[in-house]
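Q: My labmate handed me this sequence with no annotations at all. I'd like to see what the chain might look like in three dimensions before we decide whether it's worth expressing. Could you predict it?
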Amino acid sequence: MTESILLSQLQDNILWLTMNQPDNLNSLGFDLVAALRKDFDEAARNDKVRVVVLTGEGRGFCAGADLKTMTRHYAPGEPDVLDCIVALFDELRCFPKPVIAAVNGIAAAGGTELMLCCDLIYAARSAKVGDAHCNYGIVPGGGGAAILPRILPAPVAKYLLFTGELMPAETLAHYGLFNAVVDDDQLLDQVGAVANVIASKSPIGLRRTKQVANEALDKTTADAILHERLMSRDQFRSRDYQEGLKAFLEKRKPDFHGY
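A: Here is what I predict for the chain of 259 residues:
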């Protein structure tokens, strides 16, 4: 029996997804992309899932697109692997629940773009991150050149984009790319602890908060604040809001249900 290319484990409302192609640094081919899209789609509709953690097996988080698939002949109108990868990234950016990247090793090109689709990013101390598109005459198509300069200082982002070099996680942490860089053997424990904290919060409250935060950068400040107020008012009508208020008055932890 062939071992799955994507390992999935639901534990305490946390869905752990592990890309399991260590021999090719978890490169994104048709099968892995399809598996990721399927599992994220199911997770979005599963009330038992409150947080998703994405990581990789072996020495790579994800090395980007599997370039071997790009040499294949495609029939007219047939989506190529890049079409499928971009669709995955678009879906991840709109995913309604918190997603944490646990960057266990190399993240390059599309692997870096995949990492940037996540809400929180934790990296192992040995991890290296960069954008290798230029090494192969490729222009980023999954958000690398569009998003990196929004997170990193422009000269740092452009250095990654123009040189194709991989930089140590600790170096990039100085520029705010990661929530934390931790010892390799502590990465999953650290991420699990954070995921447990998030999983204890109101699912519907987090979904609304994430939507406001994600859309704020594309709105004027006034429009973003208005959006936030509308979401806040909607939350007042939820059972989770009533439970949170009651728990506060009774000096106990709330028991949220997501509605």
